[in-house]
Design a protein that fits this description.
heterodimer, A: mainly beta, five-stranded antiparallel beta sheet, 11 strands, 0% helix, 56% strand, B: 116 residues, mainly beta, seven-stranded mixed beta sheet, four-stranded antiparallel beta sheet
């Protein structure tokens, strides 16, 4: 089945800096890659996603890039703010299904 | 607020017992997914239902079962509970969920299960 690796496991940045989280996947037929943000005591919240026919997608301070050849995708957060502090999860679909396989998560800490 | 509701928020029980977790999907969503989140295993997919029928199975133990009712709410039943079943259990819903479809999954707030 699909395997998703996520790095780093923790990331500390200063407010205003950029943050990058990287994921690799194993199933070359995977076609959908969402990113979730989970705050303490809450469920994961979808923040951005990308489909396999697109190389990059932006939404304000958040962007995701996809390299299908290398089977990796990344989350980029610019001008980080303390409220960006949370655990971020990448995920990928199994080939031909809608179920998601998640990475282990990255704890992002943005210091004022 | 994702629109997905889960009850109860917290559940404390003893080993060997049986519990039922409940999930109501977003209005109009036909698919319900159950996930288990633990510190060592991360977010693990358990099972998916689509319009009342089981659609996909993940790492779900035989002691666990689920169903989706005609009103589309879903219940996850956990029996013969063990200490290792202590975790957060999340429900997610999506509009579709059939094979070859990819669509956004929206998560509920979760149920924290503690087995003593």
């Amino acid at each position: 089945g699909e395997n998703v690796e996520q790095h780093p496991s923790t990331l500390s940045v200063q407010e205003g800096d950029s943050a990058v989280i990287k994921c690799t996947y194993s199933d070359s037929a995977s076609n959908y890659f969402p990113w979730y943000k989970q705050e303490l005591g809450k469920g994961p919240q979808l923040i951005i996603d990308i489909r396999s026919n697109v190389g990059e997608k932006k939404d304000q301070r958040i962007a995701v890039t996809l390299n299908k050849t290398a089977k990796h995708f990344s989350l980029h957060i610019t001008e980080t703010q303390p409220e960006d502090s949370a655990v971020y999860f990448c995920a990928a679909t199994e080939s031909g299904y809608s179920t998601l396989t998640f990475g282990k998560g990255t704890m992002l800490l943005v210091s004022p | 607020d994702s629109g997905v509701t889960q009850t109860p928020k917290h559940l404390i029980t003893a080993t060997g017992q049986r519990v039922t977790l409940r999930c109501s999907p977003r209005s109009g969503d036909l698919s319900v997914y159950w996930y288990q989140q633990s510190l060592d295993q991360g977010l693990q997919f358990l099972i998916q239902y689509y319009n009342g029928e089981e659609r996909a199975k993940g790492n779900i133990l035989e002691r666990f079962s689920a169903q989706q009712f005609p009103d589309l709410h879903s219940e996850l039943n956990l029996s013969s509970l063990e200490l290792g079943d202590s975790a957060l259990y999340f429900c997610a819903s999506s509009t579709s969920g059939g094979r070859a479809f990819y669509n956004e999954q929206f998560f509920g707030p979760g149920t924290r299960l503690t087995v003593l």
